[in-house]
TrEMBL record:
Domain DUF7745: 1-127
Alphabetized InterPro entries for the sequence: DUF7745 (IPR056647)
Pfam families linked: DUF7745 (PF24924)
Species of the source: Gossypium trilobum
Lineage top rank: taxon: Eukaryota
Name recorded for this polypeptide: DUF7745 domain-containing protein
């Protein structure tokens, strides 16, 4: 836990407030609007249903990162992309709604370390099972 906290630079985050998915959360559309600073029509046009959840394609976010005028929003969108593509990848090339929930909650000083650590173990375990068979 300490190593992940250091690697993720979560030292100022309150360690006793671990992330857990809230029951009453903004829907995916509203979270993306908040994170990206874009209007409802733009966000709604890019949301897709993939497998069992909603998501947005990485290419849409990449284009927005390159074109967004607000530097803080560009960094936020880039960070959301990294979380979605590398740490919590569910659908190849897409950012899942669960990732946006985690990312949205980081502003509330919750630590993502246990969640990321658990996801790492789950991913490595799945990879190991696939490599064995």
């Amino acid at each position: 836990m300490e190593e992940y906290t250091t690697l993720l630079r979560c030292l100022r985050i309150q360690a006793y407030k671990a992330y857990s998915r809230a029951v009453n959360v903004l829907n995916f559309l509203k979270r993306l609007m908040s994170i990206m600073g874009m209007n409802e029509q733009w966000v709604a046009a890019w949301i897709k249903q993939k497998v069992d959840s909603k998501c947005i394609h990485w290419k849409s976010l990449r284009d927005l990162i390159l074109a967004h005028l607000n530097t803080k929003k560009r960094v936020d969108i880039f960070a959301l992309s990294i979380y979605g593509l590398i740490i919590f990848s569910k659908a190849l090339g897409h950012i899942d709604e669960a990732v946006s929930d985690l990312f949205d909650r980081l502003d509330k000083k919750v630590t993502p370390v246990p969640t990321i650590l658990a996801e790492t173990f789950r991913s490595l375990s799945a990879y190991r099972r696939a490599a064995i068979f």
